[in-house]
Amino acid sequence: MDPFTAIGLASAIVTFVDIGAKIVKRLKELSEAGDVPEVFRDIRTRLPLLTSVVVGTQQNIEHLTPEAREALQEIVTQCFEQVNQLDDLVKKVVVSRGDSRLVKTVKASVSLIEEGRVQRIATALRDNVQLLTFLNVTPGEKGNPPLERQSSEPPPPYAKEIGVFLVPFSRDEDFVGRESVLQNIVSSFEKQPRVAISGIGGIGKSQIAIEYCYRFKDRNPRAHVLWVYGGNIARFYQAYKRIAQLLEIPGWDDPEESILELVYSYLSSTTSHYLLVVDNADNIEHWWPGKYKSGGLLDDPAHNLSKYLPERKSGSSQVLITTRDDRVASRLTKASKPLAIQPMSSEEASLLLRSKLSGEEIEYEKSEVDSLVEELDRLPLAISQAAAFIEENDISITEYVEALHGENAEEFLEEELDDSRRDEDSVNSIFRSWKLSYDQIRKQKPCAADVLSILAMLDRQSVPKYLLKMPEVTTSLTVLQAFNLVTARAGSQNFQIHRLVQRFVKIALLKEKTTQKWQEAALACVAREYPTEIGVAEWPVCDALAPHVHAVTAYHHDTRAARLDLAHLLCWSADFDIERGMYTQALERARKSLDIFEELVSKDDERLASATWLYGRLRYYRAQSASDMSVATDLLQKALAISKYPSLNYAESAFELAHLYYDECNEESCLKMGKASFECWKAMEGPNSVRTLDNQHDYALELAIFGHEEDAIAIWQEILERCPASDATENTKTVYTYRSLAGIAEFQGDSAMAEIFYAKLISLCEVLYHSEHVHVIDYRLSHAEQVMRQGRHDEALRLSEAILKASDHTSEWSIKASCLQTMAECYKMKQCHHEELNYRLRSLRLHEKSLGHNHKETVDAENALADCYLSSSHYQQAQSLYIKVVSWRNAGLGPRHSDTLRAMEHLAISHSYQDQDAEAEIIFLDIIGRQDSINFRLLNNLCVTLQSQGKWMALESWAQNARKSDSEYRTSIIWSWTTALEQQGKVEEALAIRAQFLTVNSPSDDPVLTRPLLVFPPARDDRRFGRMIHPRTWSA
């Protein structure tokens, strides 16, 4: 509410006189000490005079007409604002006796900067003295507010006989751009007599209007060009009074005539050609006070400025309106759409900045100029402010940009610009300009100001309307759009605000000490709308909210409610980060979420279970050591223990544990958790639920990979039977059908049939998603694998190469890694070791980049590369890698893990191929010692190394273990045994053993047995099971 409406006009005058007297007293004291800056000397003279006149006017209040009282209220309002500004300036620039030398120097510098502002206040005080004097002299003039403000500009440059030119501003010789806007104004006037240009404060509306006036006068030298300030009623009346006087409208000097009615009638009926500009028509209450009430005299519908705008349909008159409020523009132009003024183009903005920095011949770098104008949103007033500040303070553009990001940015953007082409009552600062709009919105529609406060705390671009679940949000957004503080994205329900507007609102809220309130409100909005079960269908929502999540989670929150909202949002946004492959950010968010929930909620709270499961999942994904895997296991087991059954948290914790145990080759635990996951979904949603069937499919995969193909196929057949009755869409049912059939065919060894079903999955999912969607790419890779298993290696390579290119558009690196693995396998089968080596190296680098050097999957990639080196006879390189792999697996998986033993066996073989049989013997003996029973392949390899070293007694001792064996290696080991006997002179015993155990008479009868050979361990079945195989489709 206006302060004078609240305390009354008489009380306001008393308050004004009291403040003015204090300022005069202060200046008088300092003047006697010689410490008053020159710029304040004129103020010291004018302020006592103004105070005296105000006191005199107060005595005549009861004799004034209502219109005169309203005008007096406007003038006193201006005076009150001016003395408050003076009070602030005196404190900033006037030196006190106790000030230090440094403070005196700083205040002297500030006084130079503020000189223009003080001068404008002095001019305004002089004008107000004249107006108040007029009120004192003619208190009884009927219906007439005070006489017009006397312009301080020089006389109009055009003579009266060729048309009055009443524009109080000189032409800007450096006017830049805006040609399309000026042309649009011309075109609009060809269709309608009133045209409005609207835009945010500082966008350059008044400067465009000034330029249009001069161009209009150049084209129409005999026409009148009239300028009216529409920012307040008193100034509007003053301008009409001046127009009446200069145009010599009959009755202009008759005190019984209403000036507003007189000018309105004349301009509505004259045949003279004229252009009338109404500048800064921003306050809708001045134009329709009966509809937009504010309290006080303005609520009288009789005081309606909109009634006094001339209306003519002929082409000889033009009325141009500038406003920040699109509602004013639309209504004053009879529902015509206003010309919305946008920020300057980059080229125009750069040119404007350079034109304002012409004091010194300095060559500015294009990059720094572009950086500054973009930082200022290409707003002309902000650019002009910046240029003035840079020149006055002799700083560089780079220094100014850095300052804008500093703690004192407000001072830079609130600095008043001394510009003779802006109205004295207009605010010449971008932030002060917006504050007028902000205050007006807060007064007219508080809900709109609340919406703006929340918008400022979110990311400034693409704010979905559904985030703003607030009272009157639709009408609030309409008001904010009307003031051009908020813009709507074309064809959507998304909104955005200028960078500088966002900064202004944040500073305004900081001054109001409500920043934390609105930060928490914005956090609550995002947390409320963020999905908590994230599947494919939720990805677009999560993508849209991602920048707002980043914004609100960066604030510091203290209250319990806000911290719980923060923990909730961090938890589920981390879940989506995993889907995007942003593991580092996800890990940080999940850790923070867990910390907050552990502090604030009970140990059996489901929110704690969610955060524990998610953090455990991430620790598993990013595990780089045995201790990391142990931590992940403990977290997931803890989440399982505190989760209710059945629940989402229980099902997901069991699901992740199943995958973790698979990586550890823990068959029993993997199958137990896999079954628990799908049975939990079954208990929650029934046997035909999409999510039940999805997790049941994962369990079938686990069974198949661990060798239980029949059980797996039975489950897939069950899924096929249940699909028709499921709650899935028809497309999802079809996906399930093809996926199950592909699994059955694949694990029955029918790669041709599996290929057909994967091809069908690709075609269907390209329709459901798009050709480069992560699910489509995954099915394409499965299809290529089936082609490879049928021996069509070149075709598989072509398919894989295409997938590799498509995977560049997805953040899921594991797809690319699997593709590289498939291509390497193709070249391995083709015996193209050089090409295989290339893809193995690329795969290893990708794993190192994505997971680090010590992650299990990176070690697996190192093992595959070592295998490639070994098969291509690069034994030394293979040996170096196997040593690293064995070392990690001993610590990470354990000394008896099958992957550890397999790597040790390859390491021993690499030694043997380099004639390092003693080292190979030690490793083979170590492996045998770790096993519960003898592995005859290993025994065969040990015998080979012993035979190569001539260790006949040891060979005889070990080879006897094959006596009761029926393995495929029995014959080879017994030949080694008999050879050892012969070498020790035990020929008859050797012959007897051959006769008993062998079907050939001598080694020469079987060339293969002339010297036993090393046998490689069987390759592990590295089918793509885990995080990406058959991605979830229950949200499709």
UniProtKB/TrEMBL annotation:
Transmembrane segments: none annotated. GO terms for molecular function: ADP binding. Gene3D superfamilies: P-loop containing nucleotide triphosphate hydrolases, Tetratricopeptide repeat domain. Residues 11-132 form the NACHT-NTPase and P-loop NTPases N-terminal domain. Pfam families: NB-ARC (PF00931), SesA (PF17107), TPR_12 (PF13424). Residues 180-356 form the NB-ARC domain. PANTHER family: AAA+ ATPASE DOMAIN-CONTAINING PROTEIN-RELATED, ATP/GTP-BINDING PROTEIN-RELATED. This is NACHT-NTPase and P-loop NTPases N-terminal domain-containing protein. It comes from Heterodermia speciosa.
